[in-house]
Design goal:
Two copies of one chain form a homodimer. The first copy, chain A, has helices at residues 3-23, 29-36, 40-46, 50-75, 80-92, 96-102, 104-107, 114-135, 145-156, 161-166, 170-194. Chain A is mostly helical. Chain A has one domain (55-194): Orthogonal Bundle (Tetracycline Repressor, domain 2). Chain A binds chain B through residues 100-101, 104-105, 107-108, 146-147, 150-151, 153-155, 157, 159-163, 166-167, 170-171, 173-174, 176-185, and chain B through 100-101, 104-105, 107-108, 146-147, 150-151, 153-155, 157, 159-163, 166-167, 170-171, 173-174, 176-185. The structure holds a DNA duplex.
DNA sequence: CTAAACTGGAGGAAATCTCTCCACTAGAAG
DNA sequence: CTTCTAGTGGAGAGATTTCCTCCAGTTTAG
């Protein structure tokens, strides 16, 4: 494959990811091509169907999720509180909204196949990270990996311009409050363990 | 106006509200008419333009918001914790997602006019409710009315089927955790007031 | 420099959406 | 019950959007 062709392919996936996260996966393919600065023909040559493009976007996001998670797992023992907070911040920047909300209709048909495999790997990583996080008392015992990922996806789904303007930094605050809430719940559990009824 | 005509008009607004909340305000008007069980011509006779329909949906939601808020304000003195919780649960059932997320692009042009007036009234009501809620130590002092409304809108925006299936009851849990987080933050503030640094 | 890989975007086909028109249905007043 | 008229539904023309192919021309690698 020629070098410039590969570059264009990457640009297409990146732009598709951006647009999917912003508007859902039903964006016009023409818009993806234009946004990536390539002709529409190039898109169709690289991705046989819309589903193929969606799949690549899904894989890219899952790969990022997995690497962020491994990183956090390595940092956790040193400073649990800080590592956990930094991890969640990374998740926020990850277009999980695109994965869970926008892509899921298209990915539903791909319950088997590479996306599903990548998803299992990533979720397993998150789950094993959560073992340490729970032990550190940062989240309640019943917080699951899938639940965490979907929750972050919901909170960070991009909002229309008017909303962002009406309540700037709202997402950051929401994340702060959520983390505080998880911590509080973990605290309640711990107290119950120490002094059982 | 004939009685049956009025009934159809209401059905149209109700169906539009449902569909806007579910899919954003760019639903096909044909779909709204069909969902309401009336012909497309009836829709166009009642609402001159798409914007007129959107406006009515906005007014309906804002009216519900306001009445829920007044109700809660009346209940608050008797039992703050319970009233606050019940209020938030009501907000969750209110299609605020439709108001903030789906409608805002169309409503942006209506910055003056009936929708804007209704919004100011409703937000003023929420603000005055929050005075009591803050005093009861249930939320931090800097939680604003608009922020609360938009936050609930974000969290309750409807999710695609696949997401709902992957993590059922997630929205309920999110709301629980959020309330716990707000409470915890309010607690921190209170502690700081008692024992200032 | 040459061959082969690769490109862009015009444009036809297909789908979708908007909105009008008018023959008809069914409330309401007497 | 009859009559008058406000109100109805849905076909379909026209406008818009999206999909996808085709090929003359450009760019890279060797």
């Amino acid at each position: 494959m020629r070098a410039d062709a590969a570059r264009r392919r990457v640009a297409l996936v990146r732009e598709a990811r951006r647009l999917f996260a912003e508007n859902g996966s039903d964006v016009a393919l023409d818009a993806v091509a234009e946004g990536a600065g390539v002709g529409i023909a190039t898109l169709y040559r690289n991705f046989e169907s819309r589903a193929a493009l969606v799949e690549q976007v899904g894989l890219a996001i899952l790969a990022d999720l997995r690497s962020a998670t491994t990183q956090a797992a390595a940092d956790l023992p040193r400073n649990p509180g800080h590592a956990w907070r930094a991890y969640v911040d990374q998740l926020v920047a990850l277009d999980l909204g695109a994965l869970t909300a926008a892509l899921s209709p298209d990915l539903a048909g791909a319950l088997h196949g590479p996306v599903s495999d990548a998803q299992q790997l990533s979720l397993a990583a998150v789950e094993s990270l959560l073992v340490g996080v729970r032990a550190a008392g940062l989240v309640p015992a019943d917080l699951g990996a899938l639940e965490l990922v979907v929750a972050v996806g919901i909170v960070t789904r991009p909002q229309p311009e008017a909303v962002r303007q009406a309540a700037p930094h709202l997402v950051d605050r929401l994340v702060d409050v959520l983390l505080a809430g998880l911590l509080a719940r973990a605290g309640v559990e711990a107290a119950a363990r120490v002094r059982p009824t």
